[in-house]
Design brief:
Number of helices: 8
Strand content: under 5%
Shape: globular
Number of strands: 0
Distance between the termini: 30 Å
Radius of gyration: 18 Å
Largest sheet: none
């Protein structure tokens, strides 16, 4: 697997906090838009003395998450303005499925981290709630920047060995996570994964193969990390 699509959940500005907490190791990688004012603002927030507590660090990430949601909304409007009606409808469906997945994912993360203890996991959870929103905003920005109104042509996943490999591992880690979760919380995992699949199915026809690998790889990384985190105390 390559670093390109096995992204970590932390941006560079969040990694410093996670390293200090011992949640992730320095071998983790992240794709960072270093000059983005949202990232810079979160980095500055995390460095403030009055935000050095766990609650303060979490607040910095929550504020960044809110800012990235606004950025995603703005990029989505810009994207739609460049597309013909048929493409607009497809992107609206993608966005609708993404919002549904985001909400289901938040519920799943709450259930997963309820099995852990320690302030470091509060920081980790906040980051995992932030990263999908940041990813979506950057993806929409990229789509808006390159929009041509022409359909995207990409091979089927079954014809792309990398896509097939990531999909296999993704399903494997989903099963591991489901098995490790308490029985009462397993429906939340199933709902989140079902919502993600609906988002994937609505989105992959609109993006190229590299973006598809990014989407699948981010999900693989999430499921792998959660499967290793559940029940840690």
């Amino acid at each position: 697997m390559t670093v390109r699509f096995l992204r970590s959940f932390a941006t560079a500005c969040t990694l410093a906090a996670l390293f200090a907490a011992g949640v992730v190791t320095p071998t983790a990688h992240a794709e960072v838009s270093a000059a983005d004012p949202i990232d810079a603002g979160m980095r500055a927030c995390l460095a403030r003395a009055d935000r050095s507590s766990t609650a303060g660090q979490v607040q910095c990430m929550d504020d960044a998450r809110t800012a990235w949601r606004s950025a995603a909304d703005a990029a989505f409007v810009q994207l739609l303005a460049k597309l013909p009606p048929a493409q607009q409808r497809r992107w609206r469906a993608s966005q609708q499925k993404w919002v549904a997945w985001r909400d289901a994912e938040d519920t799943m993360l709450g259930a997963a981290f309820a099995t852990t203890s320690g302030s470091s996991y509060q920081i980790y959870e906040a980051d995992m709630r932030l990263q999908p929103v940041r990813d979506r905003a950057l993806a929409l920005r990229g789509a808006a920047a390159t929009a041509s109104g022409q359909p995207v042509r990409a091979r089927a996943c079954s014809a792309d060995a990398r896509c097939e490999h990531v999909s296999f591992d993704l399903n494997r880690y989903y099963r591991q996570l489901y098995a490790r979760m308490p029985k009462h919380a397993r429906p939340a995992v199933a709902r989140a994964q079902s919502a993600w699949r609906a988002y994937r199915d609505a989105t992959t026809p609109l993006i190229d193969e590299h973006a598809r690998l990014d989407l699948l790889g981010a999900r693989l990384a999430t499921l792998k990390r959660l499967s290793e985190t559940v029940n840690n105390r």
